[in-house]
Amino acid sequence: MNILIADDEEVLRMLIVDTLEEEGHVLTEAVDGKDAIEQFQEGKFDLLLVDYMMPRMTGIEVIRQVRETSKVKIVMLTAKTQEKDVEEAKEAGADFVFPKPFSPFKLIELIEELDGEQK
């Protein structure tokens, strides 16, 4: 899968990239919300992993903007797991809300499941 990861935490991005590249996925990194939109417009992605809280544009804003033109699968990565936050992410257009901190192995399982749905 061709995956865009948008998260302002460099260490988390590195962990996700290293883990998913080992599984054969191609990853592109975005350091904030605006960068995510620019990368999304320039590439062709099968999946977006988007952090909730990012500078310059929140994950919610990114999802809303992406949803204006695309049905790409979107997973929101977030430490904000209260019901109202999960609802906001789903209403914006997130397909899944994945709570932080998380096991990279659980993320791999979710991505394999999503990859299977697309084939």
Structural notes for this entry:
InterPro entries: CheY-like_superfamily, Sig_transdc_resp-reg_receiver, ST_Response_Regulator. The mean pLDDT is 93. The termini are close together. The chain is built from five helices and five strands, in the order βαβαβαβαβα. The protein has a five-stranded parallel β-sheet, with helices on both faces. The chain is α/β, with parallel strands linked by helices and 119 residues long. Helices cover 48% and strands 21% of the residues. The longest helix is centred in the C-terminal third of the chain and has 15 residues, at 104-118.
Global geometry: globular
Strand order of the largest sheet: 2-1-3-4-5
Average pLDDT, to the nearest integer?
A: 93
What is the number of helical segments per DSSP (H or I, 4+ residues)?
Answer: 5
CATH class: Alpha Beta
Task: Outline the low-pLDDT stretches.
Answer: none
Largest β-sheet summary: 5 strands, parallel
Proportion of residues in helical segments: 40-55%
Distance between the termini: 11 Å
Pfam family, one: Response_reg
Domain Response regulatory: 2-115
Protein name: Histidine kinase
Modified residues (4-aspartylphosphate): 51
Keywords, separated by commas or semicolons:
119 residues, alpha/beta, Rossmann fold, five-stranded parallel sheet, 5 helices, phosphoprotein, transcription
Concise synopsis of the structure shown:
This protein is an alpha/beta fold and 119 residues long. The protein has helices spanning 10-22, 33-42, 59-67, 83-92, 104-118, and strands at 2-6, 26-30, 47-51, 73-78, 96-99.
